[in-house]
């Protein structure tokens, strides 16, 4: 028996050499020889099938990159490009990117191009069009992300933003509501635009946020903000409780363009806003930074709606903050009592360790 092991190893080595000379992969021997050959589609044929299968957020993020891929490689089959060719295409997209005010050398464009490619090939692997080991996009590294330049906005500068938003433009009431909504909840633009009238719970002062990655949560808001949201719906909404909550005066739902116009206008009045490329996401940084400093990391994480496990240790499973703690942080931030905050004794009463950044 012991003498057969070296013999078997020698036979396996001979077999590997033979397969290598024939250009045959071991997994190919498992395929049914009577099965019809797999017809690999072109990018033009397959990309838009993928677009119909992904979420609206993914489609919106990758749509322009899929168009560019089809422009360059539309008639090529999925199994033709090599990892080197994908990297070269990413560099081409990177150099051709439109230079915006917050551009960072096209890194984001190259990263999104590779991510869009990976999405296509991930579905191709699921469909059995190519093998996992033959996925060329998985072998291309994304550009290293630079550290974010966003930061918390100081109280005096935040007050100036609030003042300009509420005193200029063609709809200062709407813009003031947007600034207040994002400052109180630290929600993203997509979460605000996805709000519906049925997402408001006036009794408990909660709004239901649906944000990127399919995440959703009930987020506490102050009684003042809830009153303004309800009044906004009464004045501009209709009977459809599943329609958009945030609307222009004529009843048309808000889009991302409103935010672009808002920050452009604020930047014309406050040069530092334009120079530092301040955006709505800076309000999120401001609020979450204060909550973390004044309360804890666990409360800030819950306040932000973060649920992923990649950036924290196992301990977060046991120290997860509850919605009542988020409401307590909001109450301290806005200096308004919240329905979800329970009365406590003097010994247990928790005071924030930092002053609220909201203008008084």
From TrEMBL:
Any GO BP annotation: DNA recombination
Enumerate the spans annotated as Tyr recombinase domain. Answer: 148-331
Region Disordered, annotated ranges? 334-360
* UniProt keyword annotation of DNA-binding present: yes
Database matches in Gene3D superfamilies: 1.10.150.130, Intergrase catalytic core (1.10.443.10)
Q: Name the coiled-coil region(s).
A: none
Q: A single Pfam family, by name?
A: Phage_integrase
> Is tRNA-binding among this UniProt entry's keywords?
no
Q: Which GO terms describe its molecular function?
A: DNA binding
Arranged from A to Z, the UniProt key words for this protein are: DNA recombination, DNA-binding
| Family indicated by similarity | Belongs to the 'phage' integrase family.
The protein, known as: Tyr recombinase domain-containing protein
């Amino acid at each position: 028996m012991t003498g057969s092991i070296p013999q078997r190893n020698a036979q396996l080595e001979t077999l590997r050499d033979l397969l290598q000379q024939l250009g045959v992969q071991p997994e190919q021997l498992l395929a049914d020889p009577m099965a019809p050959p797999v017809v690999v589609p072109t990018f033009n044929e397959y990309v838009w099938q993928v677009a119909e299968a992904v979420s609206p957020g993914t489609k919106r993020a990758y749509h322009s990159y899929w168009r560019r891929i089809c422009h360059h490689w539309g008639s090529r089959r999925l199994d033709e490009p090599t990892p080197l060719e994908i990297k070269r295409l990413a560099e081409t997209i990177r150099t051709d990117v439109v230079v915006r005010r917050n551009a960072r050398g096209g890194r984001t464009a190259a990263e999104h191009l590779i991510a869009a490619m990976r999405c296509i090939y991930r579905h191709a692997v699921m469909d059995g069009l190519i093998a996992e080991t033959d996925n060329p996009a998985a072998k291309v590294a994304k550009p290293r992300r630079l550290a974010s330049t966003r930061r918390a906005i100081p109280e005096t500068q935040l007050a100036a933003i609030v003042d300009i938003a509420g005193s200029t433009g063609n709809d200062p009431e709407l813009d003031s509501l947007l600034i207040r909504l994002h400052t109180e909840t630290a929600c993203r633009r997509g979460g605000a635009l996805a709000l519906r009238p049925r997402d408001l719970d006036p009794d408990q002062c909660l709004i239901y946020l649906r944000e990127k990655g399919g995440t959703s949560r009930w987020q506490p808001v102050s009684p003042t903000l809830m009153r303004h949201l309800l009044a906004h719906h009464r004045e501009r909404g209709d009977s459809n409780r599943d329609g958009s909550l945030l609307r222009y005066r004529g009843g048309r739902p808000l889009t991302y363009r409103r935010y672009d116009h808002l920050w452009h206008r604020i930047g014309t009045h406050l040069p530092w806003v334009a120079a530092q490329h301040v955006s709505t996401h800076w309000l999120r940084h401001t609020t979450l930074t204060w909550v973390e400093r004044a309360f804890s990391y666990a409360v800030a994480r819950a306040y932000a709606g973060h649920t992923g496990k990649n950036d924290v240790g196992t301990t977060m499973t046991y120290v997860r903050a509850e919605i009542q703690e988020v409401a307590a942080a909001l109450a301290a931030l806005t200096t308004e009592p919240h329905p979800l905050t329970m009365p406590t004794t003097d010994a247990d009463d928790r005071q924030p360790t930092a002053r609220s950044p909201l203008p008084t």
